[in-house]
Amino acid sequence: MANTTERLEARIPADLKLLAERAALSSGITLTDYLVELIRRDAPKRLSTQNDIALSNEQFDQFMAACEAAPPLSPKLLETARKLDSEGF
Predict the structure, then answer these.
(1) Rounded to two decimals, what is the model's pTM?
(2) Distance CA 87, CA 89 (A)
(3) Average of per-residue pLDDT across 27-33
(4) Taking residues 40-63, what's their average pLDDT?
(5) How far apart are CA 16 and CA 14, in angstroms?
């Protein structure tokens, strides 16, 4: 990823802006650096909750049994899956 910057604008209540400014000042950094750090820490955690699936051993065993019992995949479905993989999905 290139090290370019982009502008981000947001409207937030005045009391939250003041709170963020005070937190940044107490940390010895700019408001921008403070917000960037918050995004860097929080965004990956939030996104992982959307992408990660946690199963118990019993649930995993049931899932594997269902996969093994499934009928063979059609050539069209396999080709679609290959295409999605090549596109990064």
Answers:
(1) 0.56
(2) 6
(3) 96
(4) 91
(5) 5
The confidence band for 1, taking pLDDT boundaries of 50, 70 and 90, is low
Q: Where are the domains of the chain?
A: 14-86
Tokens of 75: 């050539």
DSSP state of 88: T
Distance CA 54, CA 66 (A): 17
Whether the per-residue pLDDT at 83 is higher than 70: the answer is: yes
**Which string of DSSP letters, residue by residue, matches 37-74?**
HHHHHHHHHHHHHHH-----HHHHHHHHHHHHHSPPPP
What does the block give as tokens for 12?
């937030």
Amino acid at 59: Q
